[in-house]
Amino acid sequence: MRFLITGGAGFLGVALANHLVATGHHVRVLDDLSAGDPSRLDGRVLFSRGDVRNVPVLWTHLQDVECVFHLAARVAVSESILYPQEYNDVNVGGTVALLAAMRDVGVPRVVLASSATVYGEQPSQPVHEGMRPNPGSPYAVTKIAAEHYLFTLSKLYGLQAVALRIFNAYGPGQRIPPAHAPVVPLFLKRALGGGSLVIHGSGRQSRDFIYIDDAVRGMAAASLTDAAVDQIINIGSGEETTLKDLVRRVTAVAGRELSVLTNDAQNGGVSRLVADLVKARQVLGFQPQINLSEGLKLLLEKDPQFDRKRVVI
Ligand code: NAD
């Protein structure tokens, strides 16, 4: 098939693009490089720099495309509290622009990278797709708004749409920006550097960490499975891990101790979050294959950021 991946130079996008070309598909990537790095893309992927909110640019890159993966977004919960307008512009505005351009060009199918953050605080775990969303941050609001635009406009324009609520993905290629860094690579870097780490809250808050190859398998399946159309589907590991447990596993893999300091809980986070995968199994035949300890070992082996000779804190 011929795919366009918006935000395809980012962490999930590069892995997805490289997987799709390796399995015989044609892939174009559109990314403004506000956070992405196209140098990690397979040479067979056609890369263009551009903003997903620019409809004429989209018209060009959507020609002959059969399915779009819409990943372009601003992605940090804590940063979204500081810059809600920018998050709304990119994450909601970009989704609306894309859907309008798909209508204009006649591209039939779209898979949205939505987020487990839309669930927010829930009365029970694991969370399933029938639960009422309870977004607790501007980022989560942009993702639930994007889902609503996705299904509303797809119905009006006759598009085939799938929304994937992706949980905490980690793996090789995930950037560690100086602020708002994702926890898995940050913890590993600190452990390897022999440094200390600040945990916000009690450390008993839990998340569902999914290894990138599993996430990519779920995303690829969603684009190729007709039964996924019009569906919202969780893509997670189904494993619940507290932050304290994550620290324990990271230090075991790194073979180094981490000194852990605690601070006040941050706004926008939730106390527990783990995926119910019944629907993903039924609709996509999705079954995660790599557990957290295995995934952390793979991350350490495969990601040059964690080369022991080069890691500095
Ligand atoms: P990422 O920041 O690595 O990738 C996002 C990409 O979008 C970046 O390459 C960035 O340059 C690009 N981008 C941002 N604004 C753009 C714009 N206006 N026009 C074009 N490109 C733009 O993040 P990621 O972790 O790879 O996330 C990809 C998608 O998956 C996002 O939509 C995110 O919300 C979603 N998601 C990710 C996770 C996760 O754990 N990584 C979990 C849930 C959902």
What does the model show?
There is one protein chain. This protein has 313 residues and is of the alpha/beta class. The chain folds into two domains: 2-169 and 210-235, Rossmann fold (3-Layer(aba) Sandwich), CATH 3.40.50; 172-208 and 239-274 and 291-306, UDP-galactose 4-epimerase, domain 1. It has ten helices and 13 strands. It has helices spanning 11-22, 55-62, 77-82, 84-105, 138-157, 183-192, 212-224, 243-254, 278-284, 292-302, and strands at residues 2-6, 26-31, 46-49, 67-70, 109-115, 160-166, 168-170, 196-200, 206-207, 209-211, 232-235, 241-242, 259-263. The strands form four sheets. The chain has a seven-stranded parallel sheet with strand order 3-2-1-4-5-6-11, sandwiched between helices. β1 (2-6), α1 and β2 (26-31) form a beta-alpha-beta unit. α1 (11-22) packs across α7 (212-224). It starts with a strand and ends in an 11-residue tail after the last helix. The mean pLDDT is 95. Residues 6-7, 9-13, 31-36, 51-53, 71-75, 90, 94, 113, 115, 166, 168-169 line the site of nicotinamide-adenine-dinucleotide.
